């Protein structure tokens, strides 16, 4: 790969054990890389599913005194009324849509792709799914929030994903992204897409992290919405 040196390294990939007929694209949280999540997903993998865990580009983050770290977009503050990096969020969503397009070129239809993420990555996966014209199989949104929520119209969205299945998970002891953010997000989602397709799970004692119970719920969701086709 030559060309632009600013681009992030190639994603961490857990290949399908046989021919891939479905994919999960999972976006890590602030300051992380795709490697940890690729290991976590390898522990719950299904043989026909390819798991793609891209790495965010390194950029200065306002919240962390402009220290440079892997980040999908700038985070200015963590309160509900904090200013948001609208340009960065929209650009990051375009980059995720390009990843989806790449898998479609590889022969996996977009409606056989689940988009997911943790924290900032979960926020980006929700925003992308609600704004893309690519029909997706579902979204896994862990310990996160909906960015630019005021930019969405009141009431149901009209896009191709208005019936999309969403699994939203949150720890009830999360000190970074409080459970309230998750609760507000799930209420907003239920007003935008078919509420019957939105599942909200909370985990007792879990902080800003994941747990085995949550990963089992993620596996069940992936297996349900990306069943084998052959």
TrEMBL record:
**UniProt xrefs under PANTHER family:** ACYL-PROTEIN THIOESTERASE 1, LYSOPHOSPHOLIPASE-RELATED
- Role noted for this protein: Acts as an acyl-protein thioesterase. Hydrolyzes fatty acids from S-acylated cysteine residues in proteins such as trimeric G alpha proteins or HRAS. Acts as a palmitoyl thioesterase that catalyzes depalmitoylation of proteins, such as ADRB2, KCNMA1 and SQSTM1. Acts as a negative regulator of autophagy by mediating palmitoylation of SQSTM1, decreasing affinity between SQSTM1 and ATG8 proteins and recruitment of ubiquitinated cargo proteins to autophagosomes. Acts as a lysophospholipase and hydrolyzes lysophosphatidylcholine (lyso-PC).
Task: Give its E.C. classification number.
Answer: 3.1.2.22
Write down the species.
Answer: Zapornia atra
Q: Does Cell membrane show up as a keyword for this record?
A: yes
Q: Name one GO molecular function term.
A: palmitoyl-(protein) hydrolase activity
Claim: Acetylation is one of the keywords in the record = yes
Give the catalysed reaction(s), semicolon-separated: a 1-(9Z-octadecenoyl)-2-acyl-sn-glycero-3-phosphocholine + H2O = a 2-acyl-sn-glycero-3-phosphocholine + (9Z)-octadecenoate + H(+); 1-hexadecanoyl-sn-glycero-3-phosphocholine + H2O = sn-glycerol 3-phosphocholine + hexadecanoate + H(+); S-hexadecanoyl-L-cysteinyl-[protein] + H2O = L-cysteinyl-[protein] + hexadecanoate + H(+)
Q: Give the InterPro entries listed for this entry.
A: AB_hydrolase_fold (IPR029058), LYPA1-2/EST-like (IPR050565), PLipase/COase/thioEstase (IPR003140)
Name by which UniProt lists this protein: Acyl-protein thioesterase 1
Annotated ranges, domain Phospholipase/carboxylesterase/thioesterase: 11-225
Query: What gene is this protein translated from?
Result: Lypla1
| Localization annotation | Cell membrane; Cytoplasm; Endoplasmic reticulum; Nucleus membrane
Keyword terms = Acetylation, Cell membrane, Cytoplasm, Endoplasmic reticulum, Fatty acid metabolism, Hydrolase, Lipid metabolism, Membrane, Nucleus
What is any one GO biological process for this UniProt entry? fatty acid metabolic process
Q: Name one GO cellular component term.
A: plasma membrane
What family classification does the UniProt entry report for this protein?
Answer: Belongs to the AB hydrolase superfamily. AB hydrolase 2 family.
Subunit relationships: Homodimer.
